[in-house]
Design a protein that fits this description.
The chain has 193 residues and is of the alpha+beta class. It contains 6 helices and 10 strands; from the N terminus they run E-E-H-H-E-H-E-E-H-E-H-E-E-E-H-E.
Length: 193
């Protein structure tokens, strides 16, 4: 079992010396249900026939989405979070985020047609080399084209593409999240253009 790294070398050890001895033990059925609940919590919503659906089984609640023919299962805590009327938080999704893998689900639920443009020739790119979808609450509102310049220690914001013009509060929330991201990366924000 891998225990970590020492420089560029992987360090291996016995499982008994890595995991705590007092881990709880579960019956197979209880462990399976727990895994299914946690998988559905990670997905938020699972569409019949996709990789999440098979992993969650009959966990939690069936759900219908207006305007779609598909069947879904949903995490009740995710629905409860939507009930809170705070407009949601801002998140920049990594282009390789699991939420973006199921393109038909993205289109059906979020009306987002997502294309990773890093493999397109520059003149064909709309949003940028490695643009991050911007999610506010349960809505995709734009794309963030930004990159880290480690030499200059900056998060260079090339563009913020708004699908619809941001409300002043949304603009403030997005810019605050960019600042939080820069802090987390240990750099300062630099806007170009």
């Amino acid at each position: 079992m891998r225990d970590g790294r020492e420089g560029r070398h992987k360090r291996w050890d016995l499982a008994e010396r890595i995991y705590p001895a007092d881990l709880p033990e579960y019956a197979e059925e209880e462990a399976t249900q727990s895994l299914r609940r946690r998988t559905l919590q990670a997905a938020g919503i699972a569409k019949e026939g996709d990789r999440w659906w098979n992993a969650v089984g009959k966990t939690d609640e069936p759900a219908t989405v207006e305007g779609t023919k598909w069947k879904f299962r949903v995490d009740p805590e995710a629905i409860a979070a939507l009930e809170v009327d705070d407009g949601g938080r801002v998140a920049f999704l990594n282009p390789y985020d699991g939420m973006l893998f199921d393109r038909p689900r993205l289109k059906e639920l979020f009306e987002l047609t997502y294309v990773l443009e890093q493999f397109k020739p520059k003149p064909q790119r709309v949003y940028g080399f490695f643009a991050h979808p911007i999610l506010i609450g349960d809505r995709f509102v734009g794309m963030l084209d930004a990159e880290v310049d480690r030499d200059r220690e900056v998060l260079k914001v090339n563009a913020i593409h708004e699908f619809l013009a941001f409300e002043p509060e949304e603009d403030e929330m997005v810019r605050a999240e960019i600042g939080t991201l820069a802090d987390w990366l240990g750099v300062r924000v630099s806007e170009s253009g």
